[in-house]
Design brief:
Order of helices and strands: HHHHHEEHEEHEEHHEEHEEH
Oligomer: single chain
Distance between the termini: 47 Å
Structural class: alpha+beta
CATH architecture of the largest domain: Roll
Largest sheet: 4 strands, antiparallel
CATH class of the largest domain: Alpha Beta
Number of domains: 3
Helix content: 40-55%
Shape: globular
Strand content: 5-15%
CATH superfamily of the largest domain: Homing endonucleases
Number of helices: 11
Amino acid sequence: MRILYIINNLLAIALLFLRISPLLLSLLIITILYAAALIFNVVYIQSIGSGIGTTSEVAFCAGLIVSTQNPKVKLNRLTKAERLEFSLTGELKSILIGLILGDLFISKPYVNPWLHFKQSIIHKEYLLHLYELFKNYCPSAPKLKIEAADKRNGKVYSSMYFQTYSLPCLMELHNLFYLEGKKIIPSNIGDLLTPLGLAYLICDDGSWCKQGRKVILCTESFTLEDVNLLLNVLNDKFNLKCYINKKGTGHNGYRIIIPSYSIPVLQNLLALHMPSMMKHKIGL
């Protein structure tokens, strides 16, 4: 109401005293309405999901500004030389191994691949955590996406996402995990997967079954051969006693179950690596 009051006053002044042209008045009206829309946009987004919390996080969702904590963000296109300056630390590479086994998508439409991170709005804290890890590789801050209503139940779901630049340093991971455009589990996953990577795999694709005190890894997008490969690594390398379950009647996918008697081993292995907002996925 206060915004409308201000707009009315400004228009009254323009009409009565300033004698501005109709064209200039139209531009003034458009500018004021646009400013009001931006204010509403920020306020509305702040209320989604019980509130984003801080001004910087609201800006992340709205896509209005880039975090001032990220001096390397560059909105214009990178030169070839600038792309070659990027590299992955060992820690970030370990995290990416786990994320790619999970929901992380690598796209390679042209010469260099880029990463696409996306999470439901209920996991906004986790998405912002991932952005803090990879923000120096990104052209812009996370954005909010309002999905179309689900045809099954009519509900509208929201998500947050961000993506990296297209970078040569991501080519190795793309070549490892993609075969003819389809995501696979590489044969040397035993050498690649670390406790840190396993933690982020569970963050992305794991769920905690409270009743059975077990972790379910949603690996149904992979072939049975790939799932068995990952299963053997979890059992042999991390001393977990996992097994495979078929996902429901009529489904071709398979899931890995980390049973209750392996949970203490899993918790000791990952307690220091799991982001705090995701520790519930291993029963902590």
